[in-house]
Design goal:
Two copies of one chain form a homodimer. Chain A has 197 residues and is an all-alpha fold. Helix content of chain A is 77%, strand content 0%. The first copy, chain A, has ten helices and no strands. The structure holds a DNA duplex (16 and 16 nucleotides).
Amino acid sequence: MGRIQVENKASRKDVIIQKAASLFKEKGYQAASMRELAESVGVEAASLYNHIHSKTELLHIICFHVANTFTDHMDAVEASKVSAIEQVEQLLRFHIKRMVQDYEQVYVSDREWKHLAEPYLSNFQNQRRTYRKRFAAIIQAGIKAGSIKKIDAPTAVLIMLHAISGIESWHRSKAKINGKELEEQMISILIGGLKQS
Amino acid sequence: MGRIQVENKASRKDVIIQKAASLFKEKGYQAASMRELAESVGVEAASLYNHIHSKTELLHIICFHVANTFTDHMDAVEASKVSAIEQVEQLLRFHIKRMVQDYEQVYVSDREWKHLAEPYLSNFQNQRRTYRKRFAAIIQAGIKAGSIKKIDAPTAVLIMLHAISGIESWHRSKAKINGKELEEQMISILIGGLKQS
DNA sequence: CCTACCGATCGGTAGG
DNA sequence: CCTACCGATCGGTAGG
């Protein structure tokens, strides 16, 4: 009985988080109200607080879930023994896939993190900054190895990550090419932009 | 006397719009309050309404000012008789320059337009969609001419425009390269990504 | 999980 | 341009 209750609770919480990501993405964190969220979950607003502590907790669950996914992937890429340009391609493909498959949470993490409360805000910014530095270091290694053209590595990171966030518009568009094709197109343009010409 | 009054009013309104862009950029449209805006202008909240009609009016002034700037530039580019790839470069350089020099308004237009009220919302979306179609048509012409590699033109537009929005992160960063250098780096990567390899 | 409710804050108005 | 104020809505709590 206790077991079932726990399972139900966990599942209910997951639904709330998923619906919150969808709502935050659509309206923005501030404009999304807990009453709207409750309605989309199918309960009264007060009932949400049996599963979560606050609205801001929902945001930081989403943001850190996404951030940790990318940090973990970076660990794996750094441990792999392929060339720098191949590491960059692995990173880009992972970003693209996350954005294609799980874009609501990724989008919210990307665009709404400003609304995090301290100390989560500082932690998130630090984690993000560290991730970008590690990404830039890989690009720098590629430049040194001669497989990537001489560019400012932090600028390249910035371009890559923001370009990928454009997949949000792809989700909205009517006549969209399929996800796999999108990935290949983006890789072609972005990796093409890094290579020596 | 009447003349001076009109001039003062116009100038005051411009200050309000500029401060609003700054505040909307920093906190998001919904999270920015009219009381905060009033404070940054140096008046009481109620006094703002002698210059503007509503909070939403501030947002649509900003969004359409930016959108019209880009639409006007597109007219000029289409009228120029250079090659498609050079037209693309002109468009990218203009976007980069706007983002470097006037990024608060451009940023707000990019990220906060969702909060526009009808009929401005639909008008804005239409204008933006039309702009992107014209941009994609130029890329398509470049593909036909053989100067741009065979890619999905709408996807390429998406990548270019979002990559440029990353300049927001550049503004925040401490150890930033200068604006002109940033422009050249971005052009090198983005135009490099479009060309035949 | 719900009903009932609270204090705070919001955009905006009246009136001078 | 200000003081005074309004109705609406917000996130969240008490109590069952």
